[in-house]
Write a structure and sequence with these properties.
The complex is a heterodimer. By secondary structure, chain A is α/β, with parallel strands linked by helices. Chain A is built from 13 helices and 14 strands. Chain A folds into two domains: about 240 residues, Peroxisomal Thiolase, Chain A, domain 1 (3-Layer(aba) Sandwich), CATH 3.40.47; about 150 residues, Peroxisomal Thiolase, Chain A, domain 1, CATH 3.40.47.10. Chain A is globular. Chain B is mainly alpha-helical. Chain B has a single domain, classed as Non-ribosomal Peptide Synthetase Peptidyl Carrier Protein, Chain A, CATH 1.10.1200. Chain B is globular and about 25 Å long. The chains are: A alpha/beta, B mainly alpha. Chains A and B meet through helix 2 of A and helix 2 of B.
């Protein structure tokens, strides 16, 4: 049986660079950083006092009553999904809701709710704990709220694979359509854990940049001076649609989701394999799944988080699988690391790179690591034709997801 | 405390918890059907009402409080 073609017909995002896709993309191409100092009182005691916070607060978009019942990650999901849904034109397409699925994950879940309600429990007792606590903190909450909003009845799923979550959700959405279980899938990832506990946890692992006095220069993938990732927050959502379904309704098509590869390292709970053994296998699986020749994959939106080991391991994997011709970028240099949302946001950037024939810059790459042996769109955007491109996402736990997008 | 004062107090709670316009809060209105208060938000309304009026509203009583008037009468009896 041949696999049905799957295309992208809608995009939505709320990110540290902008409250929607257009403003985020414009900021990316301009090389703007979304990282700033944390001025909250709680930040003063932390070893890490910088983060990439949402450019537009959810309270500017959703009303107060709605937000009372939503974790910040769920608010990001609804905001990004609303943009993607409107963009797709599906609202007026008479879609059979039994053919509409949702796959939206987060890396950590409703941690802000969990911690805030625990404070209430300790201070005021159990009766004061909000009755909305459970739907706010459950990891499937973002997917479930999106499913409810659009009446999705083909299945609502919430994969979780740390920093690979957003990409994994898109890969499962692809599978859902190929398996014939849905015609349209709202897919993506969200994360909102800029809170002292997650920051302290990541900081204790020595995983985060402590460049507290120079926030805009803290996220510097592949640069010799990189010292860890910068935590970001937000959400990214794509509308995946069976190609014949999209064509039949005359939808605007951004491009194809040509293939996906998912592997696991079986190596270490947090350390990436130093040669990206599992990451390379995911890239190869995606390439084979897509049926696209390696030579046509001209661009890689890399996972590259600005950590010492992971950044270079990925380079080895890309070289091994694709060769030395792709032009890379690390948009985390601008957005910070959105954990469970990263793969979705970077998929959006990859899709737009193909559409607009431009690769956003990797900022702060002032002094490249000697092991950086591939071409990177360093410091400024690179204009070039891109028939197909790869997006990598790797997560704590040894999860590897590679997605290949191509022109429609 | 008069019944009117209790209804006004409930209106304040409903605005805070569920975004209900205080002008819509009258005795004959049903919490769920007329004022669109979902089951979880109703729990919030009950806890807030207990605090505001200094009464106890047992869980098995809540299902009998269908309208704003039912709730006001119950509070009036307990207060």
């Amino acid at each position: 049986m041949t696999k049905p073609d799957v295309v992208i017909t809608g995009l939505g995002a709320t990110t540290p660079l902008g409250g929607d896709v257009a403003s985020t993309w414009e900021a990316m191409l301009a090389g703007r950083s979304g990282v700033s100092k944390l001025t909250q009182e709680w930040a003063a005691q932390l070893p890490v006092r910088i983060a990439a916070q949402l450019a537009v607060e959810p309270s500017e978009v959703l009303d107060r009553i709605r937000l009372r019942k939503l974790d910040r990650s769920e608010a990001c999901a609804l905001i990004a999904a609303a943009e993607a849904w409107a963009d797709s034109g599906l609202a007026d397409a008479g879609l059979d809701k039994e053919r509409l699925g949702v796959v939206v994950g987060s890396g950590i879940g409703g941690a802000q709710t969990l911690l805030a309600q625990d404070d209430i429990l300790e201070a005021s007792g159990p009766r004061k704990v909000s009755p909305h606590t459970v739907p706010m903190l459950m990891p499937n909450g973002p997917a479930a709220f999106v499913g409810l909003e659009y009446g999705a009845k083909a299945g609502v799923h919430a994969p979780t694979s740390a920093c690979a979550t957003g990409a994994e959700a898109i890969a499962w959405g692809l599978d859902m359509i190929r398996a014939g279980r849905a015609d349209v899938v709202i897919a993506g990832g969200v994360e909102a854990v800029i809170h002292p506990l997650p920051i302290a946890g990541f900081a204790s692992m020595r995983a985060m940049s402590t460049r507290n006095d120079d926030p805009e220069r803290a996220s510097r993938p592949w640069d010799k001076g990189r010292d860890g990732f910068v935590l970001g927050e937000g959400g990214g959502i794509v509308i995946l649609e069976r190609a014949d379904h999209a064509l039949a309704r005359g939808a605007t098509i951004y491009g194809r989701l040509a293939g996906a590869g998912m592997t696991s390292d079986g190596y270490d709970i947090v350390q990436p394999h130093p040669e990206s053994e599992g990451g390379g296998r995911a890239m190869l699986a995606a390439l084979r799944d897509s049926g696209i020749a390696a030579v046509d994959v001209m661009h890689v939106n890399a996972h590259a988080t600005s950590t010492p080991v992971g950044d270079m391991a990925e380079i080895l994997g890309v070289r091994r699988v694709l060769g030395d011709h792709p032009v890379l970028t690390a948009t985390k240099s601008m957005t910070g690391h959105l954990l469970g949302a990263a793969g979705a946001l970077e998929s959006i950037a990859t899709i737009l790179s193909i559409r607009d024939s431009v690769i956003p810059p990797t900022i702060n790459l002032d002094d490249p690591d000697d092991a950086l042996t591939l071409d990177v769109a360093a410091l400024k955007a690179r204009h070039m034709q891109i028939p197909a491109a790869l997006n990598n996402s790797f997560g704590f736990g040894g999860h590897n997801v590679a997605l290949i997008f191509s022109r429609a | 405390m008069t019944k009117d004062e209790i209804v006004a107090g409930l209106a304040e709670i409903l605005e805070e918890v569920a975004g209900v316009n205080p002008d819509d809060v009258t005795e004959e209105k049903s919490f769920t059907e007329d004022l669109d208060v979902d089951s979880l938000s109703m729990v919030e309304v009950v806890v807030a009402a207990e605090e505001k009026f200094g009464v106890k509203i047992p869980d098995d009583e809540v299902q009998n409080l269908k309208t704003v008037g039912d709730a006001a009468d119950f509070v009036l009896k307990q207060a």
